[in-house]
């Protein structure tokens, strides 16, 4: 049930060197409030992998970097890990896990970061499990919500935003620095994905005056920001619904009905159509 380390970069045109097609992982539609599923789209074929409780999935489900396991926290606070292959079993890792703020996330190398509530203080403590380990040591109290590994696994960015504030730190949570990003006429609401070295982040935004939502995570994003300059990074298409960074700095960009591989320099490459029924699905990640 241990994920296999993954650190290979996808070529900018979206065609891996070995000729095998990439696999894309989605969280099913929000229409069914009882349960939902994680789906894999690969070589034009759709496969339902695991069925999960609706609230638990939308608040906390994430796929490991190699697509071998899904982690999620039940509403009762059980951190579960389930294999995605047929017949895969579910294992409870810890109880009293944080289901909403420090939801479990995977590094490209297979580390699992999660939040665990202290029965003494009631505060969430951040833990990081090494690849192959069931649980990890406490790394300190959580300073904010929604930790995200960079695409190369060297950095972590954390921030519930709403005010544009984030913290950027090393992968062991050391050397943190705080930053604030602003976009004229827009409000940054959520952090969704982080590029290699935390040089770029993808965030979701709303117009000034619109509701900013709540503390729950958002899997979608519409704007890429250069963290060194604070400037918006131009993308070669409109209507961006999501971005997933690769270790080499290239991006998978989601627009309505399509996934497009975009090089780090902004050059568009291969475009892959999404099934029509995926319109309301959330893109979790992809495996090159």
Structural features, described:
The chain is an all-beta fold. The chain has one helix and 23 strands. The protein has one helix at 54-60; strands at residues 23-27, 35-42, 45-53, 62-63, 69-73, 79-83, 90-94, 105-106, 112-117, 124-129, 138-141, 147-149, 155-158, 165-170, 177-180, 186-194, 200-207, 223-226, 242-245, 251-255, 258-262, 268-273, 282-287. Strand 19 and strand 20 form a beta hairpin. The radius of gyration is 18 Å and the shape is globular. It starts with 22 loop residues before the first strand and ends with a strand. Mean pLDDT is 89; it is low at 4-19.
What fraction, in percent, of the residue positions are helical? under 10%
Radius of gyration: 18 Å
Whole-number mean pLDDT: 89
Q: Helical stretch count? A: 1
Structural class: mainly beta
What are the low-pLDDT stretches, counting only 5+ consecutive residues below 50?
A: 4-19
Strands of the biggest beta sheet: in what spatial order? 3-2-1-23
Task: Indicate the proportion of strand residues.
Answer: 35-45%
Distance between the termini: 20 Å
Compute the number of strand runs. Answer: 23
Based on Cα principal axes, name the global outline: globular
- Main sheet overview: 4 strands, antiparallel
Strands, helices and their partners?
Elements: E1 23-27, E2 35-42, E3 45-53, H1 54-60, E4 62-63, E5 69-73, E6 79-83, E7 90-94, E8 105-106, E9 112-117, E10 124-129, E11 138-141, E12 147-149, E13 155-158, E14 165-170, E15 177-180, E16 186-194, E17 200-207, E18 223-226, E19 242-245, E20 251-255, E21 258-262, E22 268-273, E23 282-287
Antiparallel strand pairs: 1-2, 1-23, 2-3, 4-5, 5-6, 6-7, 8-9, 9-10, 10-11, 12-13, 13-14, 14-15, 16-17, 17-18, 19-20, 20-21, 21-22
């Amino acid at each position: 049930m241990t994920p296999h380390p993954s650190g290979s970069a996808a070529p900018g045109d979206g065609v891996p060197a070995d000729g095998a097609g990439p696999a894309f992982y989605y969280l099913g539609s929000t229409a069914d409030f009882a349960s939902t599923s994680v789906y894999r789209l690969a070589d034009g074929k759709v496969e339902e992998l695991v069925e999960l409780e609706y609230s638990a999935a939308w608040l906390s489900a994430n796929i490991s970097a190699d697509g071998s396991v899904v982690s999620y926290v039940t509403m009762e606070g059980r951190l579960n890990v389930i294999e995605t292959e047929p017949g895969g079993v579910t294992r409870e890792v810890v109880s009293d896990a944080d289901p909403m703020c420090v939801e479990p996330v995977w590094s490209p190398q297979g580390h699992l970061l999660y939040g665990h509530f202290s029965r003494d203080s009631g505060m969430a403590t951040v833990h990081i499990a090494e690849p192959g380990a069931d649980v990890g040591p406490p790394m300190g109290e959580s300073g904010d919500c929604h930790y995200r590994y960079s695409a190369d696994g060297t950095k972590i960015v954390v921030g519930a935003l709403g005010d544009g504030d984030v913290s950027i730190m090393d992968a062991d949570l050391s050397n943190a620095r705080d930053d604030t990003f602003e976009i004229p006429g827009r409000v940054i609401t959520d952090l969704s994905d982080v590029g290699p070295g935390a040089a770029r982040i993808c965030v979701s935004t709303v117009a000034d005056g619109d509701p900013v939502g709540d503390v729950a995570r958002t899997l979608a994003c519409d704007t890429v920001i250069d963290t060194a300059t604070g400037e918006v990074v131009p993308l070669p298409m409109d209507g961006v619904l999501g971005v997933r960074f690769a270790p080499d700095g290239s991006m998978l960009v989601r627009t309505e009905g399509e996934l497009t591989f975009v090089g780090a320099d902004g050059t568009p490459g291969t475009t892959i159509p999404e099934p029509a029924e995926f319109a309301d699905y959330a893109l979790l990640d992809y495996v090159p």
